[in-house]
Design a protein that fits this description.
The chain is of the alpha+beta class. The protein is built from 10 helices and 6 strands, in the order αββααββααββααααα.
Length: 267
């Protein structure tokens, strides 16, 4: 095996068999050294999705909604590996790369994810649940302070190691199509979509989380968030109108997060 730590021969055989015998995009494999995850990349339909998203961003004049560059499966693997290395070099926890091939990466297990922790805490300890959301927002600010962004900072792509927030799934690379500070502002907005819908005590958690991010984030990113919020705020009236007919989860998240951030900047 290449790229990662040496595995016992029996684990190598098990892993190679899994790589060639299954086509699932994400697959867990139990080895003597523990669980590892196979992540397979494909490019079917990706270019069309990117084209539609970019056309929409241009039409609505929302440059921060531009899609990351379309890549082949091999290019997606290379992007994943490159960004894992960049985060590791900056001291940000990530999964370890055990092996990589043209279309797949084998990664170490990072369980539990923040998503899993939030699901456990929500019914038993709402205060700790909300504190975890605030912690993640502060850690996102620390990530931005060292000149990085994630691109899709959802709780399912986060974990905690040695009291630091770690990240996985680096499929997005927004800094390739927009300034870093814009990508960082988008990170915060995307995380607030999740936080505003999940929080048990919404307004208190929003206030604390935003304050935690601002305390660590670069001033340039805060300035870009103001612009982003102003642009997205133009669509709140339409979102609320649609919500009277059908309030889906995505629409609810958009309204809750964007309303709060708009209020923060407009007083």
């Amino acid at each position: 095996m290449k790229n990662g730590p040496q595995l016992p021969s029996e684990d190598v055989a098990t892993l190679l068999a899994a790589l060639v015998s299954d086509a699932a995009r994400v697959q867990s494999v139990s080895l003597t050294c523990g669980t590892v995850w196979i992540k397979r990349h494909g490019d079917k339909g990706r270019r069309m999705i990117v084209a539609v998203q970019n056309a929409t961003a241009r039409l609505l004049r929302l440059p921060f909604m531009r899609a990351s560059p379309a890549q082949t499966a091999e290019g997606m693997v290379e992007r994943d590996l490159r960004r894992i290395a960049k985060f590791s070099q900056a001291g940000v926890p990530t999964a370890s790369v055990i092996y990589s091939s043209g279309r797949a990466i084998v990664l170490s297990d990072i369980a539990p994810t923040v998503h899993g922790q939030l699901r456990s805490l929500r019914p038993t300890d709402p205060a700790a649940h909300d504190q975890l959301l605030v912690y993640c927002c502060g850690e996102l600010g620390r990530l931005h302070a060292v000149g990085l962004c994630h691109g899709r900072p959802y709780p399912r792509d986060m974990f905690i190691k040695n009291e630091r927030l770690g990240f996985i799934d680096f499929e997005e690379e927004p800094e390739a199509v927009m300034p870093m500070e814009t990508a960082q502002a988008r990170d915060l907005w995307l995380f607030f979509l999740q936080l505003s819908d999940r929080a048990a005590d919404r307004r208190k958690t929003q206030d604390l989380a935003y304050g935690a991010w601002v305390a660590a984030a670069p001033q340039a990113a805060i300035g870009e968030l103001r612009k982003l919020t102003h642009s997205m705020g133009r669509f709140l009236w339409l979102a609320r109108l649609i919500g009277r007919i059908h309030m889906g989860r995505d629409l609810r998240q958009f309204i809750l997060a964007t309303t709060y951030l708009t209020t923060m900047f407009n007083g």
